[in-house]
Every structure is written in C-alpha cells, then in structure tokens.
C-alpha cells in the first residue's frame, strides 16, 4: 500500500461498518485496512430483520463489487480521488499485547493488526477507527492512535440543547399587531434572521405572545394555545409542539427533550386528532435487545416478544383514552382504530422496505438510531406522509452512539432551516413533580 505522499492508513472496527455500510468511501484519498476478523464478525450479523443486519448485508454487497485478488495483495483502489482498501489476515500478538491482554478475542485481533500496520509503515500515520470507546482506550494504551468515526457527527453542538428564544422588552405595538392581524413581517424587526419554523416568545411591558416564523411568507405568526384529542399543552414548548404537529405543511418534525416532557404523548394526540386526514397512524420504536440478544431468544410468539418494548407507546395511548369516559365516542374511536389496525404500534424493524403513503408516522426513542437508519426511514415516506421523530438525546442506550453521532441529532443538524422541517426541544418536565426532580437531580 505504498504511496508517494504520506497519506494515512485507517484500520476499521466492525461497529463502524454496522453504523454506516458506506464508510469505506468516507476517508478521502487515505488507505483502508479491513481486518479479516471484521469480516468474520459481520457474518454473524447478516441474518435478521433489524437495521443493523441490513447494514451488514449491504456492506457485504459493497465489498463484493470491488473484490479481487488485489484486495489481499497491496490493496484495490476505491475509485478516483479515493485511497485503496485491503483485507489484512490475522497477525501475531506482540509481546506488549500478550502481556496486556491475555484473552484472544476479536477486539484484540483487530488491535494486533493495527499494531502490525503501524510498525510496518512507520512513515505513515496509522489510525484505528472504532465506535467502541473502550477499544479506543485499549489502542491508545499501546501507543496506537484511535479515533471515533466522525463523518456523520453533529457539527454544531448548540443544536442539541436549543431552547425557545425569548425577546424581552419587545415593542407592545408589534405584539398588539400579532393579536389584531395574526402576523407581522420579518422586516418589521431589526437584525432578525430566524430559521424556518423557529418559535419565539415575545414579552413587552404590557403584553406577551407566542409566535412562529413562516419562511414562505417571511412573516411571524401568532401561535394560539390549542388542545388535541383531550390533551392540553401545559407550557409554551408544548404549545409550539402541538402547533407544528397540527400543521400539515410541516412534513418532518423532531421533538427532543428529557423524559416526562410529553414528546410522544403530544405526537400521538395530534395524530389521533387528525385521523381523518390519514389512512393510517403508525407508532414505532427501535428495539435495543437485552444483552445484545436477538428477539428470537425471548419466549413466546412474535407479539409476546415485542410487547415489553412497545409498552411505553401503549402507556401513552392509555393516557389519551383515559381523558374520556369509556362510553364516549372519542374513547370508542381509539378502540376501533386499534382493532382495525388504522392505529398500529409496531417495532421499527418491520417498517424497512415498506412504502408509507398518506400516513402519520411517529418514531419514538429515535436517539437510538444511526444517521443511516434515520435516512432509511425517511426515504420510506410516500405522498401525503408526515413523520415525527421523538427522543431524549441524554438517554442513549446503544453502546456505539453518543449525543453527537446518533441519528436524531444528525437529522436536526442537517434538516434545520428547511421549510418542511421543524424542531422543538422540550425542557420542562410535566409528568410529575417527582419525575422532574429525579430528572434534574439524579
């Protein structure tokens, strides 16, 4: 893999490929080494319906397209402006590796290959790329440079904890215009450069108002406090959220915030309120299996296997139902929608491959999805479909994702200021005083 200039050599861990099957094309003109151990591990992930299995299969297809004898001998070019890729067979553990790590496991075999590469090409920088922070720490303890896969990480961290902008000492005359006419032009406010669908609280000396910017008309519209199917907003953030959820022009919505802020409840209430406009309401969430075990290991039939993971969605549905008398038409409507599968709660793995037309699709716990998985889901959207992603960016269950690399944060970062997209970060917990106290102090 010799080169005239000192380009880098990247050694890839398995979890990078399972995160993004196109990763080998993201390293510019630098060379890539794929340890044979990684191919062995990928083989274990090829079977299954989860999105992680899809990544493994897709990477195998990508590799099959470029495979040849060169991939084992000197490497094969990935194309114009790209480096070369080579599969490296197993290498013996150095004395330092043997002394540090006595167990022969895949991670240590990958370390042995990274160690061998760094010593074989001392004039070139060798970097181990892994989503596993523990493996990166092990590599650094041996003097091997290691980094996270950063291609799809959020570039602006401010997007993660964005709050509603408040204007104090605002002109009461302009606020009065909001109430009298419903809106005012962006040009009426100096040095005002809002993003599409950005929300604001205007506070004057004698009055205040909630407002939202419409990029098409370049006007700021007043946001009124309205309920949806028995669920009333309890604060400004929830009011803005319902306003977005009830606007058919906003096709893609992200609701972020800690537990108890009402993200999923608001989305579900808005969906049921608008049930006549959509053929189906879908609620889904990714399944992060216990101890990384496939659902097939759990007892029972398919329904019994997934119900424990779907229970939080059923709980939110129960909250909405119990705002009405069991004999009321509103209560009976929800019962009928569930029975007729017009309101369907399902694991996210069952959605891939479908084309969803004229549906209201809510994806819960989206912070546990990779950027590629988010893209896969959004590209399922057919004509008339709206998608709502909810999640807590501080509560990530996947071992290989963090606040900057998860799919929900990535989507918010990339889609902001698009006219069909809106993001609300809910800060104030409304589940109970105890839940709010625990969220803040524990």
Automatic annotation (TrEMBL):
UniProt KW keywords: ATP-binding, Nucleotide-binding
Which residue ranges does the record assign to the PIN domain?
8-137
Q: What is this protein called?
A: Phosphate starvation protein PhoH
The UniProt similarity line reads:
In the N-terminal section; belongs to the PINc/VapC protein family. Belongs to the PhoH family.
InterPro entries to which the protein is assigned, alphabetical: P-loop_NTPase (IPR027417), PhoH (IPR003714), PhoH2-like (IPR051451), PIN-like_dom_sf (IPR029060), PIN_dom (IPR002716)
One Pfam family cited in the UniProt record for this chain? PIN_4
């Amino acid at each position: 893999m010799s080169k005239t200039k000192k380009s880098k050599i990247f050694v890839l861990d398995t979890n990078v490929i399972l995160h993004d099957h196109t990763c080998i094309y993201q390293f510019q003109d630098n060379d890539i080494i794929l340890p044979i151990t990684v191919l062995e591990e990928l083989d274990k992930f090829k079977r299954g319906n989860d999105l992680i299995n899809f990544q493994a299969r897709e990477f195998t297809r990508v590799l099959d397209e470029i495979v040849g004898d060169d991939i084992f001998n000197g490497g094969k070019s990935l194309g114009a402006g790209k480096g070369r890729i080579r599969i490296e067979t197993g290498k013996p553990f150095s004395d330092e590796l043997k002394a540090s790590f006595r167990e022969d496991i895949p991670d240590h075999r990958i370390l042995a290959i990274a160690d061998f590469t760094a010593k074989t090409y001392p004039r070139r920088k060798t970097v181990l790329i892994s989503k596993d922070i523990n493996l990166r720490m092990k590599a650094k303890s041996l003097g091997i440079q290691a980094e996270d896969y950063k291609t799809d990480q959020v570039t602006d961290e401010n997007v993660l904890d964005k709050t509603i902008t408040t204007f104090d000492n605002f002109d009461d005359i302009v606020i009065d215009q909001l109430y009298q006419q419903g809106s005012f032009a962006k040009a009426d406010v100096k040095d005002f450069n809002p993003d599409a669908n950005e929300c604001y609280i205007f506070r004057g000396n004698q009055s205040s108002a909630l407002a939202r910017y419409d990029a098409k008309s370049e006007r700021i519209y007043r946001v009124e406090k309205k309920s949806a199917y028995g669920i009333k907003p309890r604060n400004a953030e929830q009011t803005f959220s319902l306003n977005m959820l009830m606007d058919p022009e906003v096709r893609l919505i992200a609701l972020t915030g800690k537990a108890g802020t009402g993200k999923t409840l608001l989305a579900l209430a808005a969906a049921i309120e608008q049930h006549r406009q959509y053929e189906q309401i879908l609620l889904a969430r990714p399944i992060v299996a216990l101890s990384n075990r496939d659902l097939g290991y759990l007892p029972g039939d398919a329904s019994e296997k997934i119900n424990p993971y779907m229970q939080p969605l059923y709980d939110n549905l129960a909250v909405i139902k119990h705002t009405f008398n069991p004999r009321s038409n509103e209560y009976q409507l929800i019962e009928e929608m569930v029975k007729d599968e017009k309101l369907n709660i399902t694991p996210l793995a069952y959605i891939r491959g479908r084309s969803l037309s004229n549906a209201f699709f809510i994806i819960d716990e989206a912070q546990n999805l990779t950027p590629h998985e988010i893209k896969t889901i959004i590209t399922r959207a057919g004509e008339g479909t709206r998608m709502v992603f909810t999640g807590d960016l501080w509560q990530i269950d996947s071992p290989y994702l963090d606040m900057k690399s998860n799919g929900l944060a990535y989507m918010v970062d990339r889609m902001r200021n698009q006219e069909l997209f809106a993001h609300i970060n809910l800060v104030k917990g409304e589940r109970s005083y105890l839940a709010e106290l625990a969220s803040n102090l524990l």
